[in-house]
Structures are given as C-alpha cells and as structure tokens.
Amino acid sequence: MNMTLMNADEYRESLKHRKPMKIYFLGEAVDDPVEHPVIKASINSVALTYELAQDPQYRDLMTAKSSLSGETINRFCHLHQSTEDLIKKVKMLRLLGQRTGTCFQRCVGMDAMNAVFLTTYEIDKTHGTSYHEKFKEYVKLVEENDLVVDGCMTDVKGDRSKRPSQQLDPDVFVHVVERRDDGVVIRGAKAHQTGAVNSHEILIMPTETMRDEEDKDFAICCAVPADVEGITYFYGRQASDTRRLDISAEGDIDCGNPEFGGQECLIVFENVFVPYDRVFMDGEIEFTGLLVEAFAGYHRQSYGGCKVGVGDVLIGAAASIAEYNGVASASHVKDKITEMNHLNETLYACGMACSACGTKTGAGNYLIDLLLANVCKQNVTRFPFEIARLLQDIAGGMFVTCPSAKELENPETREIIEKYLVGASGTSGVDRMKMLRLIENLTIGRAAVGYLTESMHGAGSPQAQRIMINRLVDMEHKKDLAKRLARIIE
Ligand code: SF4
Ligand code: FE
Q1: Distance between CA atoms of 113 and 195, rounded to whole angstroms?
Q2: Dihedral sign of CA atoms 251, 253, 255, 258 in order
Q3: Half-sphere exposure (Cβ direction) of 299: Cα atoms closer than 13 Å
Q4: At 252, is the pLDDT very low, low, confident or very high (cuts 50, 70, 90)?
Q5: Which residue's CA lies nearest to atom 6 of ligand 1?
Q6: Which of 354, 362, 380, 381 lies closest to 297 in space, CA to CA?
Q7: Which of 104, 193, 381 to mutate to test the pocket of ligand 1 (most atoms within 8 A of CB)?
Q8: Which residues line ligand 1 (CB under 6 A)?
C-alpha cells in the first residue's frame, strides 16, 4: 500500500508513540488512552477511517489524489478539488456512520483544514503575509503522515453577552499571552472537542466573528501537536459510558454498541508555545468571520452524511425489532419506517445539494453552497429527534426495562430471561436483548450524544444556522419577483 496511508494498527501504534499526555477521566489520570476500556471504543471508530481506506471496495470513496503532492492520501486529509470531491466526502461520511453507528471524529480536522486553507489565501492577498504557504506545508505534513487533526474551534466563552476582551477572565477565550521572536504563547480552553485524545494534531481556530481592535489577541489560528507541553485534556462524562466497564461473561451486550463510540473533551491550554511556522492567523480580526463561516459550513455539510449513516442504523434497528416483535407487517409500523426513511433521505439530499452546488475558492479548493449547508444542518437539528422518536415507538418499552446481560451468567436466571424475552417465530431472547440495547444506546444512551445532542448543537446551535440563512437569502430578489407579478412599479 501507499506510503501515505496508515492502516488501523499503525494508527493505534502512532497514538502510543505520542509523548505522555495529561488526560483526566472520572477524576483519574489516564496513562494509556489506547488501552483504556472506555476510550478504546472511540479509537476504534477513528481506526475504521484507516481500515476502510485499505479496502479496495472503498478506495475511491476513502482516498483521494493530493493536490499538493500528487500522492494517494486518505480523504480525511484532502483539500477538496471539485464538487465531485464534496459529494464523495458526504458519501464517505454516510458509509462510516453506517458502519460505526456513532461519531468517528475525524471530519472536524478535514473541515478545519479546508476552511483555514481558503482563509489564509485571502489574508495573504490583503495583508501580504505568508500564512498560506506555511499552511500548505502543514497540510503536506498531515497528508504525508496520514494524521488525525482535531479541528478546535469552540471556546468555553464565559459570559455569552460579552466580547472576548470584555470577559472578567480573558482565558475563557483562547488568546495570545506573549509574542516571542520565534513564536507565540497561547492560553485558554476549548470545549466539546470531538476526538481530541485520539488526534495527532490540534488545529486551533477563533470561535466567532470579531470586530473590535481590542479582540486582536483572540484572533489566533495555529496548530500544535496533541502531545505538546501545556495541554490538559478532560475527557467528557457521557450517558452510559461506564457500561463499558461492567462487562458480563456473556460479553458486552449492555453497551449496546460494544465496538464503537464517540469522544468529546475539554482542552485546557496553559501557556502553550507555538512556533511561527505553525501560526496561520494572528490578529487579522476581519478574517475571523470568513474562517468561522467556512468551517461551520463544511461541518454542516458533514452532518448531511454522518448523521444520515447513523440514521440508516436506526432505521435498520426499527425494521429488525419490528420483525423480532412480530409486528413488521402492521400498516402503521410500515408507515412509520417509511417516514423515517423519508426524513433520513431528506437530510442526505441536503448534504448532496450543498456539495453539488459548491464553488471554487480563490485558494483553489472547493467550498460548499453555504446557504444549502446551513439548511442541511438546520434540518439535522430536528429530523434525527423524530427518527429516534419513531424508533422508540416501534421498539416498545423493553429497551429501558430489559434486565442486564449479567443475569445471563446464572443458568437459572438465564433460562427465565431466554424464555420471556423470546420474540416472534423463535427469535432468541438474547438477540432481542442485543437489538434493544442498541436502540437504547442510539436514542438515550452513549450514542444519543452524537445522534441527538450533537445534531442539535454540533457545528453550531440552531440559531447560528438561522442567522446564516437570514443573511444568505436574497430577500430583495424575492420581493421583486412578487411585485413584478402583482404589476407593482415602485
Ligand atoms: Fe464527523 Fe459527524 Fe462526528 Fe462531526 S459529528 S466529527 S461530522 S462523525
Ligand atoms: Fe460534530
């Protein structure tokens, strides 16, 4: 295989070769995240992005030709060169959503790289700076080594009614605290960082559009290795996460999705040094808006792929449990599954549309249609909730009252459970239990974090898309259309 492509084992190995990192989970320091029973599942999800790239069946979706080196690279490292690339990205994310049933984390880095690429080009054009060339070198490093990049945007933000420089403690926004001859020193914290502990690199971006000169120190975009000195990771506590710790002899049925999981962290930067060759914006406040909107737009497009793939798993779970329960041919069940498919494919249609209508940027990579990407994400804040509701409706209440898989260890209780959990035409009680646990995991358990809450707030909360939709829609044109038909001449 190509030198620029790692396989899944090499990826896991590469994480082990990082310098010791400060990671906390449930109040304890984690020395080896790769072997940690809770973290492992989230690493498996990222590892699948490497594994499928090695599979000839998925090569066309999972890899691309680098625009910088001409080498075959993992698509997660790629700068999109056409609308076809944008479409393949969405298809790739749907595939991975189907295979993991959760968040596989690697997309934020891809979205961040494409956004920083086009923004640095525009900054240089205005200011005569050399950020773009430096950033190209950085992308080459990522491509050649097939790295996972954490696209790191959301600050903890403190008082939301105040600008960064007005905060009582400026550290609630990541900012430059010192400028040296050879680089800058940054401090602050970023929240909700998807896959941070599973990454090789952290690509830091400002969190919002800035306008005031006083906010200059907060307009910082730069990259640091994930194991750089001064970073502390706080691994997020999430619903049902410790189900992974109480494994029964029967296996890990109670996890619902034993192999795959997602990951979100709080990252604290305590005086982290960044050399100038890794600084891609420093004080150019007028470009913060472009960077934030481009990144958010790309990530809103992503949700038209990954959440659709996970939606496919929910629909498959609905059809399976309906069969197990013996209600698959009931007309209302069939109709509900049709509705689930309709909603899910509508999301996919939005992901496809914003990709197909993408345009070439000044820097040469492709940007999605921002209006359609925002419409896509706005639908994602609603439809998965309805799809999950329909799944819960079809499943019946057993997915929250089902006994633990530990009961299967005792032959006496096992017999009772197998007898009473039995489904239609001899469906085994244990298989039914497994499907019910997956439904729990997807709709109220660990994976609901990604499928529901992240659909609501990830890539920007609903109001953020409404502001963009309002801004991007041409209202004067619409009014003219109406007035023309009404023969109103003003
Ligand atoms: Fe990728 Fe979706 Fe997870 Fe975002 S939420 S990182 S797009 S899988
Ligand atoms: Fe996300």
Answers
A1: 16
A2: positive
A3: 30
A4: confident
A5: 105
A6: 354
A7: 104
A8: 93, 103-105, 107-108, 194, 302-303, 306, 450, 454, 458
106 CA: nearest ligand 1 atom: 6
Last residue of a domain, one of 273, 289, 305: 289
Structure tokens of 77? Answer: 């490292």
Question: What does the pLDDT look like over 397-454, one tens digit per residue?
Answer: 999 999 999 999 999 999 999 999 999 988 999 999 999 999 999 999 999 999 999 9
What's the longest Cα–Cα distance across the chain? Answer: 85
The range of the structural domain enclosing residue 428 comes to 291-480
The one-character DSSP state at 197 is G
Residue 486 lies in a domain: no
For residues 163 and 229, the answer to whether their CB atoms sit within 8 Å is no
Pick the residue whose CA is nearest to atom 7 on ligand 1.
302
Reduced to 3 states, what is the DSSP secondary structure of residue 101? coil
Dihedral-angle region of residue 226 (phi above 0 means left; psi in -120 to 50 means alpha; beta otherwise): alpha
- Measured in Å, residue 54 CA sits from the centre of ligand 1 at 21
DSSP 351-414: HHHHHHT-EE-TTSSEE--HHHHHHHHHHHTTHHHHHHHHHHHHH-THHHHPPPGGGGSSHHHH
Q: What is the mean pLDDT of the chain?
A: 97
| The amino acid at 380 | V
The catalytic residues are 103, 107, 194, 264, 299, 303, 306, 454
Which of 70, 43, 75, 71 lies closest to 58, judged by CA? 75
Number of domains in the chain: 2
Same domain? For 87 and 121 the reply is yes
Residues β-bridged to residue 267 = 190, 233
Q: Which of the listed residues 243, 274, 289 is the one where a domain comes to its end?
A: 289
User: What's the predicted TM-score (pTM) here?
Assistant: 0.97
Residue 225 domain-assigned? Answer: yes
Residue 215, domain CATH: 2.40.110.10
Q: Which ligand is nearest to the CA of 105?
A: 1
Backbone angles phi, psi at 288, to 5 degrees: -65, -40
